[in-house]
Amino acid sequence: MANVQYYDVILKPVVTEKSMAAMAEKKYTFLVHPEANKTMIKEAVEKMFEGTKVASVNTMNCEGKNKRRGMVTGKTAKTKKAIVTLTADSKDIEIFAGL
Length: 99
Fold this sequence. Notes:
two-stranded antiparallel ribbon; Alpha-Beta Plaits
């Protein structure tokens, strides 16, 4: 695996109705690096957002979709999502505060 630093692990937050509803339970959804594991995701969240403590991390691999353009077929890129659950005494993540 390539040398993945903590700032390379989290790519962007996922903003959907389902993920916004889960924020009430202190669950935050991120797109992460495809080769990142759960411990790397936990360390990255705790380092990037001060005062947060991660209780658990759930990950899911999403395969690329089949796409056509005329007779040419291909696939979109694979992605990986992580749902990070914070502890009860942890601070909230600020990037979701204004949404």
